Amino acid sequence: MNGTIKANGRHCSGPPLTIYLAAPRGFCAGVERAIQIVELALAKYGAPVYVRHAIVHNRHVVESLKAKGAIFVEELDEIPETDAPVVFSAHGVPKAVPEAARSRRMFVLDATCPLVSKVHVEAGRHFQDEREILLIGHAGHPEVIGTMGQLPKGSVHLIQTIDDALSFTPKNPAKLAVITQTTLSVDDTKEIVDVLRQRFPRMVIPRKDDICYATTNRQDAVKQIAPRCERMIVVGSPNSSNSVRLVEVAERAGCPRAMLLQCAKEIDWPLFGGIKHLGVTAGASAPEVLIDEIIDAFKARFDIRIDTVTTAKESIAFKLPRELREMPAL
Questions:
Q1: Domain region containing 235
Q2: Is residue 8 part of a domain?
Q3: pLDDT in tens, 108-126
Q4: So which residues are the catalytic ones?
């Protein structure tokens, strides 16, 4: 990609800037599936389609779906009596939510990421085996609320930090299991798991890490880019756990300053004066159009060269709900 051309086609005489563009970046398979479920439901059943909680944590995506006829609510009791589809977000929901939907005979389309559902299944299996469950995650995150809500209150203990791991007192050290939120820092989670494993050697851990492939891949790409850059931009929303983790990973990997931006309008240009190397990536819920807009903004001010740094290829796709599988692709 030739960086000497501005977005409007004219040559730029600004200072040279190499942009290291992370790959993979942006949408993961779970996010793509969730958005597609809402779009296909609108196409098949018409507006409105109700969505409980933001379908994914990105304002641009939510506003785009609102414009097409989606109505977002936080709780089911905000939805009037209706035959319209009700979509559960990609983050998953506590068991009480689908139970309430069934009691109201709602037509539900579940957009929970299959990798989150896998953690729910793990939690249920550990509970059946009478194990005390430790969930590594962030309090208040919808995925954590959904996972803890799969089981009776008190069955799952939230571990957020190493201090939590050091202070936790189990009922029976021989009957413990650990699960994790899917969007955590790989390195931070490993440190917490190592502490728990040292304290409780008989603790059951997942055969395969609960942190999803997309989170891991995006963090690996950032680790490759960060040491080369004076600045790193992570495109994503402040309430996106995986996006916030990318900022932390970038600075820990050697970038002097990493920042989370939702769009090009948020660029604080004085922070980029005099730099020669910029890293750009995006959280798993950020659409590519937002990345393009940020790169175009830099094209207008710098003579840019883009170097795409690829650390993994992603080809995973998840099945749609049965009701939508016969729909033509949008």
A1: 16-27+213-310
A2: no
A3: 999 999 999 999 999 999 9
A4: 143
